[in-house]
Amino acid sequence: MANVSVYNMEGKEVGTMELNDAVFGVEVNEHLVHMAVLQQLANNRQGTQKAKTRSEVSGGGRKPWRQKGTGHARQGSTRAPQWTGGGVVFAPVPRDYSFKMNKKEKRAALKSVLTAKVQENKVVILDELKFDEIKTKAMVNVLNNVKAEKAIVVLKENDEKVVLSARNIADVQTSLVNTINVYDILKHNTLVMTKEAVQAIEEVYA
């Protein structure tokens, strides 16, 4: 089991914590991580783009000029793709881009990125994260104290003061144990978690 230092909000080491190898010490499966990122990006797509094909554009029912003898190239319709105002070749139509991954694959992908962050020493564990008031500067100070840049902060339960304090900081995101995902973890350099959040993750995914 990996031993990770636990810090307080001032950035001082106040102890250590053993991480469960079933969650933070698995074999990293890059293929599943890649699939999980693709799935999230695909599922976020609206898929509402639309353009008209030559069969949907109005007009063009009549042959613009006779087949031979005009000196022009032969044409059958003014709504063919080569005409201004004509239809689009292979026009996009509304579609659903989403696809499914098995639950076991999703869990394995999440464990892989958590393990990778531990291996890269990009995990910071706080003994607690609580504020008396909503204050962006207080959150900036905590992140600076633990040297966390471009961080995702994982909480066990929704804490409005923490979430709103972090909301205005560029490249910082808050997330809950039940909403963390592969894409968000990969997008940020540092994974900041409270002790409670780590224990909750181990309970859910071990």
TrEMBL record:
Q: Which organism is it from?
A: Muricoprocola aceti
Protein name per Swiss-Prot or TrEMBL: Large ribosomal subunit protein uL4
Classification via InterPro entries: Ribosomal_uL4, Ribosomal_uL4-like, Ribosomal_uL4_dom_sf
HAMAP family per the UniProt record, alphabetical: Ribosomal_uL4_B
Q: Which GO terms describe its cellular component?
A: ribosome
> SUPFAM superfamilies of this UniProt entry?
Ribosomal protein L4
Gene symbol here is: rplD
**What are the entry keywords?**
Ribonucleoprotein, Ribosomal protein, RNA-binding, rRNA-binding
The record describes the protein's role as:
One of the primary rRNA binding proteins, this protein initially binds near the 5'-end of the 23S rRNA. It is important during the early stages of 50S assembly. It makes multiple contacts with different domains of the 23S rRNA in the assembled 50S subunit and ribosome. Forms part of the polypeptide exit tunnel.
Q: How does it assemble?
A: Part of the 50S ribosomal subunit.
Family named by the database record: Belongs to the universal ribosomal protein uL4 family.
Specify whether Transport is a keyword of the entry.
no
Give the residue ranges for region: Disordered: 44-85
**Pfam families under this entry?**
Ribosomal_L4 (PF00573)
